[in-house]
Specification:
two-stranded parallel sheet, 1% strand, 20 helices, mainly alpha, globular
Length: 488
């Protein structure tokens, strides 16, 4: 069976509230959809370069931006027959979460996680897809028994805060994995999801650059730098900027893109890498670089991409080593190379060791969400920076079982990947998610969304979305999954 025939048989079981809307839009495409990506993408990039500084200089725009994105997501989740639109919004929220925090959004801290959770659940309910895999739900259920332990020491308000802060990330991971495990994504849809993630990250890069240019005085030492991170936490900023660079790296291997557009995206990738480096938080570039290397390992096994990969990586290394790095090192007075040459772990290793001791002392149920810091010896009272040790310390053997399930899910996602491109994307996204959880825990929705996205069946050889005729055809290519965009 050819790819064209197989994809034409993919079943779309979305049940829109307004079914005639799908036929009308398929027959009369909007002018925006008809515009070439070579024009649309640069315009969107420029718009988001301006958006970051605007959100800070005009704070009222932050609330409008957040509410507009959420309202659009809810509207599409309820009424639009095009489920892929909701996925784009969820990806955009994932990329914008740190941006909104940097701009002092009036919304509560965990808004990004709950927004993604709510939109995916609403879409699943509307689409009547409530029979997803059980393992992601078991993963989260294993973390619930320990939530009653802090009742002896905390009032209901503080307990709610601790549970929300520490369990909203695992809940988002469970929901995203459950949803995407039922989903097949064509290469076109995946490319657009990557773009939806990258656009707000470009705004973050513009915001950090604005902070650097407007600073009266900058000093650099062997630690993370808040001034070059837009005044926000360098760990989160560095991680999301590196994530944007990784997504562009994966995006560049799309054969359908023009050379001019690829050069534009390479420039954006270098810009995000530079801004990530200037935060002096090393985790962002380390995670992105390691994930890109893993992706390259699988891409090089495909003869069609081997030459392009070798040439692309060679050019990238030359530009970074002989152009970008010398400029950044000169700007920082040599502090940048010293910082990245330092292999110390900034105290995270001590927190992990303390968490392991807490796990040893409270092995069955752990000590409860957010309580590990109270049991650590010495000065390690900070919130956990490593999700894996937090799960052990605060959830005991139940947390250990949850970690094993997470590893099982990751292996299943990789085994489901059918092509070198799909294996590269799944491996890179999964590794980045793990490395992010190892350095900044689950303070943002990004690692949860990325881990879940790796559960989708990625059909890189599939053609662009076309109207399905009829929508009741048997799904022989991706059993049990729906493919957003194949029915409009």
């Amino acid at each position: 069976m050819s790819d064209q025939t197989a994809v034409s048989q993919i079943k779309t079981i979305i049940t829109p509230i307004a079914p005639r809307l799908s036929q009308q839009r398929a027959a009369h495409p909007t002018s925006l959809r008809a515009l070439p990506e070579t024009l649309v993408i640069p315009v969107l990039l420029v718009a988001h370069l301006l958006l970051g500084p605007l959100l800070v200089f005009a704070p009222v725009l932050t609330g409008l931006h957040v509410l507009s994105v959420l309202a659009l997501g809810v509207w599409w989740a309820i009424l639009s027959p095009r489920t892929e639109r909701v996925l784009y919004i969820c990806a955009y929220i994932t990329g914008a979460e740190v941006l909104w925090r940097m701009a002092d959004s009036p919304l509560f801290w965990e808004f990004g996680k709950y927004a993604v959770i709510g939109l995916l659940l609403l879409t699943a309910l509307r689409s009547n897809r409530l029979r997803g895999p059980v393992l992601p739900l078991i993963f989260f259920a294993l973390l619930l028994p320990s939530t009653v332990l802090p009742l002896a020491n905390l009032d209901s308000t503080e307990l709610r805060k601790q549970v929300s802060f520490n369990l909203s990330g695992p809940l988002a991971l469970a929901v995203c994995t459950w949803f995407f495990a039922q989903t097949a994504l064509t290469g076109v849809l995946l490319r657009r999801m990557f773009l939806s993630l990258v656009l707000p990250i470009v705004s973050i890069g513009a915001l950090t650059l604005t902070g650097i240019l407007s600073a009266k005085e900058l000093s650099f030492n062997n630690s993370s730098n808040f001034a070059t991170s837009g005044g926000f936490g360098p760990n989160q900023v560095s991680a999301v900027l590196g994530f944007g660079a990784l997504l562009i790296f994966l995006w560049l291997f799309d054969k359908e893109q023009s050379r001019g557009l690829k050069l534009t995206m390479i420039a954006v990738m270098l810009f995000l890498m530079a801004q990530s480096a200037l935060t002096f938080s090393r985790g962002g570039l380390y995670a992105a670089g390691a994930s890109a290397l893993v992706a390259a390992y699988f891409l090089v096994r495909d003869r069609r991409t081997r030459l392009r990969l070798a040439v692309g990586l060679g050019v990238l290394l030359v530009v970074v080593n002989f152009a970008l790095l010398p400029v950044l090192d000169q700007f920082t007075g040599g502090a940048l190379t010293k910082r990245f040459a330092d292999t110390k772990l900034s105290g995270r290793d001590q927190i992990v060791l303390s968490d392991l001791q807490v796990f040893y002392d409270h092995m069955i149920f752990g000590v409860g969400p957010g309580q590990a810091r109270q049991y650590r010896e010495g000065h390690n009272k900070a919130a956990a920076h490593t999700e894996f040790s937090r799960l052990l310390a605060e959830h005991g053997l139940f947390g250990l079982t949850a970690l094993i399930l997470m590893l099982v899910l990751a292996i299943r996602h990789f085994l489901n990947a059918q092509t070198p491109e799909a294996k590269a994307a799944v491996a890179a996204l999964t590794l980045w998610s793990f490395l992010c959880m190892a350095s900044v825990a689950m303070r943002t929705v990004a690692p949860a969304f990325t881990f879940g996205l790796a559960a989708a069946l990625m059909l890189f050889s599939a053609p662009a979305p076309v109207p399905a005729t009829p929508p009741s055809l048997e799904n022989r290519f991706a059993p049990g999954r729906f493919t957003p965009g194949l029915s409009r």
